[in-house]
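Appendix B. Chain record.
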Amino acid sequence: MLVLVLDTATPTLVAGVARWSPDGAEVLAEQAVPSGTKHAELLTPAIRAALDDAGAALADVEAVVTGLGPGPFTGLRVGIVTAAGLADARGLPVVGVCSLDAVGSGARTVVTDARRKEVYWAAYDAAGARVEGPAVVRPEELRRPGPFVGDPAFAERLGAAVERAEVTTAGLLRAAAAQLADPSSAAPLVPLYLRRPDAVPPTAIKAVTQ
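Structure tokens predicted for this chain:
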């Protein structure tokens, strides 16, 4: 099965193409693009580049995997809406996974930038199964022993080293394996925002005078 893999939960968007089977996955191509807040402008070119590098066309794709976050509201929905739109247009199965599940491997606590001086985090056991999170917290308040992987910028505030690790195509496929093996088990794509969006409707509407 040829799988298109997307994630826009972090400042580095990921677009990958892989050959997947229940026996394992082979990543054919991956674009990891520093995108900041420009996910919408950069995702489609990254998808095209990944497909070109893999020697494949969008018509060859048989399933789509996307990260569901946690992540910033605007950037996160770019990847999810793109994945849902492509899958719907082609009648393909689409699988969503927690993006933190795709960072690092084994026993670890993943920390990524949540802005507002906070981190998104989740903890995993030796088998790589998530045992706590995802959640958002100030680094000083995260009472976890580590080891930590993710964004090293938070090492000082955590009081422990953080091994640099990012979302990868291979990691997303690993997290999606059970749902890819049984597409009927795939849950609806529900973004993991963990916060309300910054933009909110006004609480009062001013009268318009003429």
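Further analysis of this model is presented in Appendix C.
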